[in-house]
From TrEMBL:
<dbReference type="InterPro" id="IPR010982">
    <property type="entry name" value="Lambda_DNA-bd_dom_sf"/>
</dbReference>
<dbReference type="Pfam" id="PF13560">
    <property type="entry name" value="HTH_31"/>
</dbReference>
<dbReference type="InterPro" id="IPR001387">
    <property type="entry name" value="Cro/C1-type_HTH"/>
</dbReference>
<dbReference type="Pfam" id="PF17765">
    <property type="entry name" value="MLTR_LBD"/>
</dbReference>
<feature type="region of interest" description="Disordered">
    <location>
        <begin position="288"/>
        <end position="321"/>
    </location>
</feature>
<feature type="domain" description="HTH cro/C1-type">
    <location>
        <begin position="45"/>
        <end position="92"/>
    </location>
</feature>
<dbReference type="InterPro" id="IPR041413">
    <property type="entry name" value="MLTR_LBD"/>
</dbReference>
<dbReference type="GO" id="GO:0003677">
    <property type="term" value="F:DNA binding"/>
</dbReference>
<protein>
    <submittedName>
        <fullName>XRE family transcriptional regulator</fullName>
    </submittedName>
</protein>
């Protein structure tokens, strides 16, 4: 039996289609190119020769790209095309993927909070929440988080980094079993290695890794092993100076389109920990709310600091810090 089935579109065809669409949507008067007074255009958007001029490539090469005959442009050409076509960051990323190139890495780790994320922190005042960046540095928190694990307001960015506190033995209110500690170390070291792939030129990240390898034999061994770990649901025991121990669930939310992680500490209903957390929430809180983030930021591990964004968050199992 015979039949017809259309062949799937290859990457060259997909790249060609995307480039044509992006070129035709771009108004010439937004590019700074001169236009003759009273001239009429038979095509919408940029002409191929105009795109070639803006990107610094030949018209023939633009033609071949849009016809699917040139399928492997270099990263340099892709960057020039993205700039000429005024692509958004997401489109820039997509362009590289269509061309079979690794997307460009960011130079610096960002720690920008959107209004939505700030509202979330304000509205969930009864839940301790800390926000961390790609290096697991605490960048902002709500007052209840600070009241529970200790006020991090006076700490430096390095002192608010979970891996730094854990592997250098700084004091902490959170305790873990040996099994929890092993899971935490595997997951956070793996996270840090992943961050180096996304931000290879970030000086703070590079400095953190260099110092940890120098000062912590345990970290150096884990780093050299290329260990891979994942975050799993877990509990944390927080030793509060006046309320005593609280056993809490630790959950991790990931903000979309960013590396920010929200760590939430909650108590099971009708438990002693829930009563203590409610007592802490209604007591006068003298801990400082977090200042606006100026640098970097998992559920607190041994050594975690005592311590808006779109409203849709990806829920992960609570990390094992």
């Amino acid at each position: 039996m015979t039949g017809s089935r259309s062949a799937p579109e290859n990457n060259g065809d997909t790249l060609a289609t995307a480039l044509r669409l992006w070129r035709t949507r771009l108004a010439p008067d937004t590019t700074g190119l001169p236009t003759a007074p009273g001239s009429t255009r038979r095509t919408s958007g940029l002409r191929r020769e105009e795109l070639a001029l803006l990107a610094g490539v030949s018209v023939d090469y633009i033609v071949r790209l849009e016809q699917g005959r040139a399928t492997s442009p270099s990263a340099q050409i892709l960057t020039a095309l993205a700039r000429a076509l005024r692509l958004s960051e997401a489109e820039h990323h997509h362009l590289f993927l269509l061309a079979g190139q690794p997307p460009p890495a960011h130079d610096r780790i960002e720690a920008r909070l959107t209004p939505g994320l700030r509202r979330l922190l304000d509205q969930m005042s009864g839940t301790p929440i800390g926000v961390y960046d790609a290096t697991w540095t605490l960048i902002t928190w709500n007052p209840l988080y600070a009241a529970l694990v200790g006020d991090p307001a006076a700490l430096s960015a390095r002192e608010r980094n979970i891996l730094w506190r854990h592997f250098t033995g700084l004091p902490d209110r959170i305790s873990h079993t040996p099994e929890q500690t092993a899971r935490f170390e595997a997951a956070t070291v793996a996270d840090l290695r992943a961050a180096t792939a996304r931000y290879p030129a970030d000086p703070t990240l590079r400095s953190l890794i260099t110092d940890l390898r120098r000062l912590s034999p345990r970290f150096a061994d884990l780093w050299a092993s290329h260990i891979v770990g994942t975050h799993s649901a877990d509990t944390k025991t927080v030793h509060h100076p006046t309320l005593g121990p609280l056993t809490l669930d630790c959950d991790l939310l990931t903000a979309p389109d960013s590396d920010l992680r929200l760590v939430l500490l909650t108590a099971a209903p009708h438990t002693e920990a829930a009563a203590k957390l409610a007592q802490l929430a209604t007591a006068p809180i003298t801990a400082h709310s977090a200042p606006p983030p100026t640098g970097q930021a998992h559920c607190s591990p041994p050594g975690a600091p005592a311590g808006g964004e779109p409203t849709a968050f990806a829920v992960q199992a609570g990390p094992n810090p």
